[in-house]
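Appendix B, example 12.
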Amino acid sequence: MTRRPAIQLHLKTVLNRIQHFAGFIYREVRLLDQDSSLRIDIHLEAHAAMDGKCAQCLLAASGYDRLPERFWRFVPLWGIPTGFFYAPRRVNCAEHGIGVEHIPWSAGKRPVTITMMVFLARWARRLSWRETARAFQTSWEAVYRSVDWFVQWGLAHRKLEGIEAIGIDEIHWGKGLRSENFLTVIYQIDRHCRRLLWVGPRRTQASLRRGLAALGPEVVRGLRFVCSDMWQPYLQVIAAQAGHALHILDRFHITSHLNQAVDQVRRAECNRLRGRPQAAKLKHMRWTLLRRGSRVRGRAKQKLYGLLHTKLATARAWMLKETFQDFWRYRSLTWAATFLDVWCERALRSRLEPMRKIARMLRSHEELILNWFKAKGEISNGPVEGLNNKIRVVTRRSYGFRTYHAMEAALYHNLGRLPEPELTHRFC
């Protein structure tokens, strides 16, 4: 077996193969050893036979003069910090006048190459921004700027096509319950694609109107389903701007309201029975009462059955909550409406104010609730809650961004499913 002679491979050859820039050549590659630390310096120069391009119109323009040499951070090679060095030319464009030439590996005045920004942005999905900065020997600011550029590029190149179902919700962010501490989010929840479409500060009518305007009139006209909770400002905007779509109030939010009502009854009764023997029936029962009856097991189930045999108000509230689960099993819209009327009548006669409040709320939104059956299970708000959980993971992993812009960039970066720049290689 004969061996072929080994080909001598130079770093310039590798760079020209995977990181070639038309009109530029790699003049010199140096490996420097300074203070027991290695560094790779890559010096570029413009091709002598080619003119520079205007940074605005990308058309060839005659040379004017040359600026001092600049530095751009490149992807570390073998863990060694690597950088590009180049002295940009100024060109005289017939249309835009004198300006700095177009530099294909750079975006604006950032001291980081586009390849490095994409590299950091991709790793920032897997690690926190601080861990990414430490792993690749750069600053948190460099990671943040890379993610921000990555997101802005993706938003400029994404296509909003085939969107038939959206989910609208609010997410708490920051401390307190003021309007400034909430974000309005719009998701695409079609079966083939679930992603974040828009996020904005506050949970007001103006916020939602800005979000729908950002999607564009064509997207809004093409909607078939809209899922949301019962937040009144959202309901008014949806009715005005997307009234042609089937508006669905999903079971998750209704179940959440029922659980809150049962918990309010339990707490009020615990305070009323404090010091009496019956109070022992309610001790350590909070989470058991908030679960579905079919999911309660073991001793908790025995204790729950013991509570149901009493005449306590908490037992009656839990039975009302549990009975309402039968509502979602109907297939006929007529029978579902009949069940809802009977259940609301029973809740109004229960003398339990939290449950009566729920009954009044369900009756006021009866038409939107029954839309769940008109959709025939084709769409639900479950994906919205799943994406909300992912948002909480992002905020938890970020250890609290101090600015809204950083939070917005992180959410689009992780949940937007944005297009990415095409490079000749990728690292993760």
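Residues 165-250+380-415 form a domain with the Nucleotidyltransferase; domain 5 fold (CATH 3.30.420.10). Residues 155 and 418 are 7 Å apart (CA to CA).
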